UniProtKB/TrEMBL annotation:
Name of the protein: Cytochrome P450
Cofactor: heme
Gene3D superfamilies: Cytochrome P450
Annotated TM spans: none
A GO molecular function held by the record: iron ion binding
UniProt record similarity statement: Belongs to the cytochrome P450 family.
Positions with a binding annotation for heme: C418
Keywords assigned by UniProt, alphabetized: Heme, Iron, Metal-binding, Monooxygenase, Oxidoreductase
InterPro entries membership: Cyt_P450, Cyt_P450_CS, Cyt_P450_E_grp-I, Cyt_P450_sf, Cytochrome_P450_monoxygenase
Organism: Penicilliopsis zonata CBS 506.65
Length: 476
């Protein structure tokens, strides 16, 4: 028998043996789910690669058929159960992030890529003071400054009769807002004609590339060199001003005399910059995009929001701060519904069951099993959110709104939940309020189908949000 003949014989035998093991002898063999998903990861790959980011959309159907626990990969259980969710995504959780999923080359050296709580916590503790509610409040004028400039650009585009690509516009705004907040050094993405700043123009390719082939679109290398340059600039010339990174560098540089932490290398700082930039701009922009579309697409929602804004902001030369805006019930409801619709990352966030095993949904789960949960499944649970596919801010205004708040998980929860939540809320309150109070926007050739998305860790839409804009007269 030649080597090739031996190979042809052995490979199928090996594959058959593996499928038999996975279906009948694997520690997860007794859990329900499609047999094909239990046998091979190709089942998920079909939805994610061939049909493009669609396994997430299949999950509600699988849960309806198989119950709260479904075996969605040979070594992974997908869970739809809020108690189990609270157990896995808790403060001090013992469920680590699943390393291969989070090993994005763009974040190597950052806390985002660190699977375990201990290492990531010490890094998160360094950043947390700069993103606390109190700091965000203090630095809010920087967000306002970026936002007012963005509104000026939209007004000018409106005056010139341009159709505005608000998908790219919002990504440019959140990019500059975060860089202004954290570094006082925006990329001036908003200044590019038609918001064609390269990192934003190619962000989708970047995300799809990072998820599918774990590599970069060559054009997106731009973002890496820019972030590295940002770090080097701050190191060379740390301003006396209170910026996130200049403070960090001052505290954590080799000369700082601090003993509670090791200094961060330029590579680590670059990775952190990228992770903050992508994390900070992407989800916030998506929430603005989906929220804006649904407000403009529904006259009742739009006029309810405008009425509240006119009553509470009579003078556009005296725009209130986010503390005042947080008290507006309909604006708050619009923001929550936009977050529910966008999900943050909509798909599976895989975690590893600790060595002692776990008990979830009343069942023993073996150690090292990957358990994952998807925001899309939770936010579309019709027992919690009736008519989940409808954009209905009113659902957040009833007596049960505190109960619903517990089920809004767009920022995730626990020790690995979003570290930028306070900044994100400040941006959302200010942007929704100021943009709708100052500008009269109309949809331009944008339908609901344009905002249909595929899951590439971030929800990537089929089309773009396009609008026309003009300034509002002061009378509603
Ligand atoms: C609407 C806006 C936002 C949403 C919905 C959101 C959502 C989330 C979610 C769900 C996670 C956990 C992801 C996972 O476990 O895989 C996360 C993590 C993270 N977010 Fe946000 N985010 C938003 C805005 C921001 C902003 C403005 C920043 C910048 C300060 C930021 C920075 C981060 C970082 C650095 C992490 C990683 C935390 C870790 O790994 O421990 N996010 N975010």
């Amino acid at each position: 028998m030649t080597l090739i003949e031996l190979f042809i014989l052995i490979v199928p035998l090996f594959l058959i043996q593996r499928v038999i093991y996975r279906l009948w002898f694997h520690p997860l063999a007794r859990f329900p789910g499609p047999k094909l998903a239990a046998s091979t990861s190709l089942y998920a790959a079909y939805f994610n690669l061939v049909r493009g980011g669609q396994y997430t959309m299949k999950l509600p159907e699988l849960h309806r058929k198989y119950g709260p626990i479904v075996r969605t990969y040979p070594n992974e259980l997908h869970i739809h159960d809020k108690e189990a969710y609270d157990q896995v995504f808790s403060i001090g959780t013992s469920f680590d992030k699943y390393r291969p999923f989070y090993d994005h080359p763009f974040g190597e050296g950052s806390h985002f890529n660190m699977p375990d709580l201990k290492t990531s916590k010490s890094r998160r503790d360094m950043f947390a003071p700069y993103l606390s509610k109190a700091t965000v409040r203090k630095m809010e004028p920087l967000i306002r400054e970026t936002l007012l400039h963005f509104i000026e650009i939209l007004l000018q585009a409106g005056k010139e009769g341009q159709v505005i690509n608000l998908t790219k516009g919002y990504h440019s705004f959140t990019t500059d807002a975060f860089l202004n907040y954290g570094w006082r050094r925006p990329f001036h993405a908003m200044e590019y004609t038609n918001f064609q700043f390269p990192s934003i123009a190619y962000m989708n390719d970047f995300l799809i590339g990072a998820v599918l082939i774990r590599t970069f679109h060559p054009l997106i290398r731009n973002i890496f060199s820019k972030c590295r340059q940002l770090v080097l600039d701050v190191m060379r010339d740390p301003d006396s001003e209170n910026t996130l990174f200049s403070n960090l560098l001052a505290r954590h540089s080799k000369d700082s005399g601090m003993t509670d932490c090791s200094p961060l290398s330029v590579n680590d700082l670059t990775a952190e910059t990228i992770v903050f930039l992508v994390g900070g701009e992407e989800s916030t922009a998506n929430t603005l995009i989906h929220g804006t579309f649904h407000i403009l697409n529904n006259d009742a929602i739009k006029s309810h929001l405008l009425q509240e804004l006119y009553e509470n902001i009579p003078d556009i030369n005296a725009l209130p701060d986010s503390l005042a805006l947080e008290k507006l019930p309909y604006l708050t409801a619009v923001i929550k519904e936009s977050l529910r619709f966008t999900h943050g990352p909509p798909g599976r966030l895989p975690r590893v069951v600790p060595a002692a095993g776990a008990r979830l949904c009343g069942r023993d789960i073996p150690p090292n099993t990957i358990v994952s949960m998807s925001h899309y499944v939770y936010h579309n649970d019709e027992k919690i959110f009736p008519n989940p596919e409808a954009f209905m801010p009113e659902r957040w205004m009833g007596d049960d709104s505190h109960y619903l708040d517990k089920h809004l998980i767009s920022f995730s929860k626990g020790s690995r939940g979003c570290i930028g939540i306070n900044l994100a809320y400040a941006e959302l309150y200010l942007a929704f309020a100021y943009i709708f109070r100052v500008l009269d926007l109309d949809l331009h050739e944008t339908q609901a189908e344009d905002l249909e998305w595929r899951d590439f860790y971030a929800p990537i839409t089929k089309g773009q949000l396009k609008v026309t804009a003009c300034g509002r007269n002061s009378v509603h």
